[in-house]
Amino acid sequence: MSDISPIEVTEAPPAKQYLTRGTLPYRRASLALFLSGFSTFSLLYCVQPLLPVFASDYAVSPAQSSLALSLSTGFLAVAIICAAAVSEGLGRRSLMSISLVGAALLTIAAAFAPNWHMLLVLRALLGFVLGGVPAVAMAYLAEEIDPKGLGATMGLYVGGTAFGGMSGRVLTGIFAEYLSWRPAMALMGIIGLAAAIGFIVLLPASRNFIRRPGFDPGFHLKAWAGHLQNPALPFVFSIAFLAMGSFVTIYNYAGFRLVAAPYELTQTELGLIFTVYMFGIGASSIGGILGDRFGHFAVLLTGLAVTAAGSALTLSASLPVIILGIIVLTSGFFMSHSIASGLVGKLAKGTKGHASSLYMLAYYVGSSVLGSAGGWFFSAEGWSAVVFFTLAMLLCAFACAYGARRLSKAARV
Fold this sequence. Notes:
Elements: H1 24-45, H2 51-57, H3 62-65, H4 67-90, H5 92-110, H6 116-130, H7 134-144, H8 150-179, H9 181-202, H10 217-228, H11 233-259, H12 267-272, H13 277-294, H14 296-313, H15 319-347, H16 352-381, H17 383-407
Helix pairs in contact: 1-5, 1-8, 1-9, 4-6, 4-16, 5-6, 5-7, 5-9, 7-8, 7-15, 7-16, 8-9, 8-13, 8-15, 11-15, 11-16, 11-17, 13-14, 13-15, 14-15, 14-17, 16-17
């Protein structure tokens, strides 16, 4: 009797079912993620043109009025980390849907805030609720979209964030001029709610996501630590921190320069500069397509160089050249951001939501910390110091991109 061991049969893991370019589900997902980006950033930044009105109506200082925006972005940065953990159990699509609807309702509620402190509470809650969108959206795309078409879809999502950031500022200013700020905020909330409903209707259900029931702190800490130990990912996170910091610094302090002599722009004229976000929409989509075709690191390095060139152009004393510089800066930044955010999904080994949350945390911390630090340079040495500060940050970002490319096992990811 021979001793024959039985053949062990193992079941192969199911093949991933990606959404491929050219199909209806792919187009629906792309449009849904565009709507999510639009809604998130229009609701987040809609208060920026209203800060002087808040200072007048509530008798608070300009610094205090800025809390209506800074509290939202601060709580958003914190919530992004929590959102990655929650989405592992709740699901990507469910969490994004809840976040978008909740943020729209909170914006409508803020329009009826009876006092300043209640307005701040509602804006802080809005930031926390919105944390369920940015990091999770990138994770959804990385999991569900065919890698060959990921760059284009990520670019469209980033384009939606650019369109939302522009619309939130420009539309609210127009609405407030004719209707006052409360109806303006209510209208923005209604627009955000319509976008959220469109998102829910259009977005296909996750097919490659594996739900993790319960909450295991050890699992999440291990996941975040694992991404930080990835040779290339910390460099990509650093790019988010530095590039966003340089972008926000230019936008934060260009207004102070342009309302003063010799330009003396009005608030309406200054607000119209935000329409250059349209160039960011095109650049993010084009950058994603070029990245899929020519290599993501190559396009990332190009985008950072374009951002630096735009920053340098603003050193000119000519107003048209300054505006051109802001356009070039905006185009380069959104090209870089769409590529860098897509690289996170490509380089991460599992738990892509956690990797995306670290990227977005770096992104918003850069906006807050470096954007504020730029004010020290502006107060000390004026605009030229601001530009040299941003160029130094972009040089560091360029070095990080070069380092990430060398450390990545796939140089043309």
